[in-house]
Amino acid sequence: MTHSTHSRHAAVAIAVTALTVLFAITITHADDGLFDNDGASTVAGDVLESRGDLAEGLGRGAVLRSLSAKRFQEAIAKQLENRKESVELYYDLKELREEQLEKDRLSASDRMKIANSQKPDRLNENQIKRETGEIFWPEPLDSPVLEPYRRPIEKTLAKRYQPETEYREFDFIKVHRMVKRMEEAVDSIKDELDIREVVALKDYLVQIDYEARFDSKNNRVDF
């Protein structure tokens, strides 16, 4: 190999080394607008970083809300699953029959006095549309998982104002049974609710149960 050939190889090696160093420097100091020449963050960089933190915080909040709603639905679904309506009806009727036997031991006037002394308020016009049976359901009683119980209640109460339809004690029993199922649903999530909210929800369900004891002429059907 001649001296000139050695010189060419050396020159090529130096050139490659210089390009490599230059490329590395270019990457290191590429101006993306986020950092100054001394490496400190710029205003634009701080804004982007803040937006990223905000987005992360909002995302975390959405996830927590989603998990909370999921836990609520799972709690109610677990409480309501695998129910056998025919068996429930049997035990509900049995309970009501036992209550009726106790009532039969009292005179009609005594029963009326006891009922009036213990009665809750009926639903007002802001809580129910009596002609249609539509009820205002506060949260969380308006949850989709409770629709199979809300719908029969409203449908049965609407029967009171349907022409040529008699609203009887059995209709009240049906509403009573659905209300009991909703009370159980509230009990299943009571640890996640404020105690005052639990009391208010149960009081509201008692009002619905009491409303169902009256026909369209305000006569009680549960005696």
Key terms:
disordered N terminus, 223 residues, globular, two-stranded antiparallel sheet, mainly alpha, 2 domains
Description:
With 223 residues, this protein is an all-alpha fold. It is 65% helix and 2% strand. It is built from seven helices and two strands, in the order H-H-H-H-E-E-H-H-H. It has helices at 3-28, 43-80, 85-104, 108-118, 147-158, 169-188, 195-211; strands at 128-129, 134-135. It starts with a helix and ends in a 12-residue tail after the last helix. Keywords: Membrane, Transmembrane. This is Transmembrane region and signal peptide protein.
Summarize the structure.
The protein is mainly α and 223 residues long. It is 65% helix and 2% strand.
Quickly count the helices: 7
Helix/strand order: HHHHEEHHH
The biggest sheet amounts to: 2 strands, antiparallel
- What count of structural domains? 2
Based on secondary structure, the structural category is mainly alpha
Beta-strand percentage range: under 5%
Largest sheet: spatial strand order: 1-2
Separation, N- and C-terminal Cα atoms: 121 Å
List segments where confidence is low: pLDDT < 50 over at least 5 consecutive residues: 2-41
Q: Shape, please?
A: globular
Count of DSSP strands: 2
Gyration radius over CA:
36 Å
Would you tell me the overall average pLDDT?
72
Query: Considering DSSP H and I runs of 4 or more, what fraction of the residues is helical?
Result: 55-70%
Protein name: Transmembrane region and signal peptide protein
Organism: Rhodopirellula islandica
Keywords: Membrane, Transmembrane
